[in-house]
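Example with several molecule types.
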Amino acid sequence: QITLQESGPTLVKPTQTLTLTCTFSGFSLTTGGVAVGWFRQPPGKALEWLALISGNDDEDDNERHSPSLKSRVTITKDTSKSQVVLTMTNMEPVDTATYYCAHRTGYYDFLAYFDHWGQGTLVTVSS
Amino acid sequence: QSVLTQPPSVSAAPGQKVTISCSGSSSNIGSHYVSWYQLLPGTAPKLVIYDNTKRPSGIPDRFSGSKSGPSATLGITGLQTGDEAEYYCATYDGSLSAPVVFGGGTKLTVL
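Resulting structure tokens for the full complex:
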């Protein structure tokens, strides 16, 4: 059974760095065909993809992030702890959202889908 | 502005049928598989349709998916109050640097 759980601060101040951890079980992030993604949904707005990390370290694009967030987002994994960490710098009030991590099945982007999700964690950015 | 276009809201009575449309282009829906996700506040999002028409284990056959050209549709029959949620379509877009793009979401209200 695959499970994922997000954890991290519920409140961050503007300009601070957000670090969220996705702890998963039921799969290993060490092979191709498996990946973990991060997403967010601001209140009243649409779901948005943030970053993706693959289980295959040999892939050229093993770690990817949304172009709209440019260099603010970093995604890393610790396979020994079964964790994926999302870091987002220079947080602003517009970054207030529920943040989700999800397991992806599929070797290629055009054949993949996200079949297991965490419950999400609400992060508020406010001074 | 989402890459894929969905109606903001749909509604229907319990027991009735509803469809949710998702409109894209030749670089996304027109060329690639579509998946659909159900979002309920406080719960983990759920994959309800993948590969255009397939249902994951545990998703009742009241849920169905279809695709024609650059558009896709999610259908739900025998509506239940528990189906009231937000639904998002998603796919790959070959013209963008992203592994997945989403629609703007559709709020389903079961009256």
